[in-house]
Amino acid sequence: MADRSPATSAQTFYSRLARLYDALARRGPGVDTLRRSLADALDPPPGATVVEFGCGTAANRPYLEARVGPEGTYVGVDFSPGVLRVARERGAAGGDPGHLVRGDATRPPLRADAVDACCGAFVSGMLADPATAVRDWASLVGPGGRLGLLDLARTTRPGWRVLNPAFGLFVRAGSPPGTAEALGRSPATVQDERVATAHRTLRELCTDVDARTVLGGFGRVSAGTVE
Ligand SMILES: C[S@@+](CC[C@H](N)C(=O)[O-])C[C@H]1O[C@@H](n2cnc3c(N)ncnc32)[C@H](O)[C@@H]1O
Questions:
Q1: How many CB atoms lie within 10 A of CB 70?
Q2: Does any domain span residue 125?
Q3: Ligand 1, atom 14: closest residue by C-alpha
Q4: What does the pLDDT look like over 92-124, one tens digit per residue?
Q5: Tell me, what's the pLDDT at 111?
Q6: Which of 81, 92, 112, 204 has a 20 to 30 Å separation from 132 between CA atoms?
């Protein structure tokens, strides 16, 4: 029988739609604001090694490389081969294939002493146990390391809440086939809960937390220094 686990469905979905996803991830409305907000809040120091879990086509790479500079390193980790292929092609075309690794964000394939900053963008909602993943990422960077999250969730801001039903449709359309059935609940509700859990866990683990909302409260950014 075919393996229809959520992880397998996600890998198939993101590999098949990698080029379409890449176009949205780099040129979609509001994405520049969202990605700048993550890089600003994470603020990895020059020379740092920064790891992005669930990197997709590495649309955050230029924003984070601008922060860490030529002495620093961006490492992207994703479990979907199709998005990594697109990310590697772009890197190679720009003269630097970069460090793009196939791996599971919930089992970081990296040495703990090698990472200064970790982040995830639009991935918390895909993790069945986001609290454990965020704790693992915090352990990876260790005390003094930087940790950041960027996610989308339904807004609580009056005036913008009218757009929540449309956002719910966007989440459903952007979920691998069978997600709603596998969850037994609305994907947007599950995404809201997972995003809230991930960001709360980061706040519990970090000091000097910078927590922002952008784009009418749909974009959630949190970052801090691991205690
Ligand atoms: C919505 S995309 C976000 C991609 C990228 N971070 C961005 O900002 O455009 C989610 C990505 O997370 C990856 N992903 C989801 N769960 C993962 C896991 N457990 N391990 C590694 N990658 C994962 C998917 O393959 C997909 O590429």
A1: 8
A2: yes
A3: 54
A4: 999 998 999 999 999 987 877 789 999 999 999
A5: 79
A6: 81
Per the domain annotation, does 87 fall within a domain? yes
In the prediction, which pLDDT does 202 show? 98
* Ligand 1 midpoint to CA 78 (Å): 6
Residue in 5, 24, 78, 150 to alter for ligand 1 test, most ligand atoms within 8 A of Cβ: 78
| Residue found by looking up tokens 């910078």 in the block | 210
pLDDT, mean over the chain: 95
CA of 82 relative to ligand 1 center, distance in Å: 11
pLDDT of res. 3: 63
Does the residue 1 lie in any domain? no
Distances (CA, A) of 190 to 49, 71, 129, 185: 32, 39, 11, 7
Residue 165's pLDDT is: 97
Q: How far apart are CA 147 and CA 140, in angstroms?
A: 10
CATH of the domain at 128: 3.40.50.150
Closest atom of ligand 1 relative to the 150 alpha carbon: 8
- 120 C-alpha to ligand 1 centroid (Å): 8
User: Which residues are CB-neighbours of 40 under 8 A, at least 6 positions away?
Assistant: none
Domain that holds residue 101: 6-226
Number of domains within the chain: 1
Residue 74, ligand 1, Cβ within 6 A: no
**Whether residue 1 has pLDDT greater than 80:** no
| CB of residue 22 inside a 6 A radius of ligand 1 | no
Considering the domain boundaries, does residue 51 fall inside one?
Answer: yes
